[in-house]
Amino acid sequence: MNVVWYIASWLMNHVILPNPVAVYSALAQLGGREIGLHVVYSLARIFIGVILGLIFGLLIGLLMGRSNFWNKLLDPVVYLTYPVPKIALLPVVMLFFGLGEGSKILMIMLILLFQVIISVRDGVRAIPNNTYDVLMSIGASNMQKFWHVTLPGALSVILSTIRISLGTAISILFFTEIYGTEHGMGYFIMDAWLRLDYPEMYAGILLFSIVGFGLFLLVDYLDVKFMKWRN
């Protein structure tokens, strides 16, 4: 890939596409404390948004998965709102919640929320009823049935959903960090672009991709850690 990048830079011979050596050099020269602050802000927004999406998505998905009444009641609402492109909601969210941290976190949460609801509901409804019957026959409580059957079934689809949604969430985060903040990887990349510092801009994009790669590795680790029963 670096070879292709270098050849493209050489053929174009323009400042807007620096060669990989210049970009890697800019990446190495980024101030540790300054760039670390941008990364921390972006990661905090992602983590809070993902956690909120998981909490609300898990609760609603479990409710719909275990209750036909709530499933019939909430199904139309979920199916009506799920197809709406979340990036189209960005102006609305910013109007109601401002340009601060709340709107940024809310956008991340919305990316994940509906996918978690549908995945958890389908995962819970796919659990055979006789699985619960076996636990009931040995005197298991409702909490034990939830802990040993329902939650593992839901957690499996949740991790898959996070993998699918994470790339979109990072993309949305970039757009939200352009406005109303002076911290975050989105702000850093756009600031470099406005200053016409293209090596630093590409270095920021590269660092953004490294952060995303790290998040995917974290999800894989959680899968191995908590989904041992699948192996």
From TrEMBL:
<dbReference type="GO" id="GO:0005886">
    <property type="term" value="C:plasma membrane"/>
</dbReference>
<feature type="transmembrane region" description="Helical">
    <location>
        <begin position="201"/>
        <end position="222"/>
    </location>
</feature>
<dbReference type="Pfam" id="PF00528">
    <property type="entry name" value="BPD_transp_1"/>
</dbReference>
<dbReference type="InterPro" id="IPR000515">
    <property type="entry name" value="MetI-like"/>
</dbReference>
<keyword id="KW-0812">Transmembrane</keyword>
<dbReference type="GO" id="GO:0055085">
    <property type="term" value="P:transmembrane transport"/>
</dbReference>
<keyword id="KW-0472">Membrane</keyword>
<feature type="domain" description="ABC transmembrane type-1">
    <location>
        <begin position="39"/>
        <end position="219"/>
    </location>
</feature>
<feature type="transmembrane region" description="Helical">
    <location>
        <begin position="145"/>
        <end position="175"/>
    </location>
</feature>
<dbReference type="InterPro" id="IPR035906">
    <property type="entry name" value="MetI-like_sf"/>
</dbReference>
<feature type="transmembrane region" description="Helical">
    <location>
        <begin position="105"/>
        <end position="124"/>
    </location>
</feature>
<keyword id="KW-0813">Transport</keyword>
<feature type="transmembrane region" description="Helical">
    <location>
        <begin position="46"/>
        <end position="65"/>
    </location>
</feature>
<comment type="similarity">
    <text>Belongs to the binding-protein-dependent transport system permease family.</text>
</comment>
<protein>
    <submittedName>
        <fullName>ABC transporter permease</fullName>
    </submittedName>
</protein>
<keyword id="KW-1133">Transmembrane helix</keyword>
<keyword id="KW-1003">Cell membrane</keyword>
<feature type="transmembrane region" description="Helical">
    <location>
        <begin position="77"/>
        <end position="99"/>
    </location>
</feature>
